[in-house]
Amino acid sequence: MPKKAIELGPLLVSRLVKPGAHAVGGVAGLQPKNSESGARSWVLRTMVAGKHRDMGLGGYPDVTLAQAAKQRARLKRHARCSSARCCRYRRDG
């Protein structure tokens, strides 16, 4: 059984500085990703058509935790569809 990640709030997300992906907890698949250069972004790790995909949701702090969680819900609905045409996603729609 997988470990359950500690649920992070906006303040704890802002304090993450270690490079790599971090589990947010409470929002499955949503990860803030910090690069070696200090750039930060939101990534949704999910399965689309039987394959693992990392979908970028935007840069942090331009995209807040609440906005990323809202986008995650919308994208997960699209990812459940098995046809390639339906699995395409757009951040603006």
Describe the structure.
This protein has 93 residues and is α+β, with helices and mostly antiparallel strands. It has a single domain (10-80), classed as 2-Layer Sandwich (Double Stranded RNA Binding Domain). Helix content is 26%, strand content 27%. It contains three helices and four strands; from the N terminus they run H-E-E-E-E-H-H. The protein has helices at 10-14, 65-79, 84-87, and strands spanning 20-21, 30-34, 40-48, 51-59. It has a four-stranded antiparallel sheet, covered by helices on one side. A hairpin with a 2-residue loop joins strand 3 (40-48) and strand 4 (51-59). It is globular. The termini are far apart. The model has no long low-confidence stretch (mean pLDDT 79).
How is this fold's topology laid out?
Elements: H1 10-14, E1 20-21, E2 30-34, E3 40-48, E4 51-59, H2 65-79, H3 84-87
Antiparallel strand pairs: 1-2, 2-3, 3-4
Roughly how many Å apart are the termini? 35 Å
Task: Kindly state the percentage of residues in helix.
Answer: 25-40%
How confident is the prediction overall: mean pLDDT? Answer: 79
How many beta-strand segments? 4
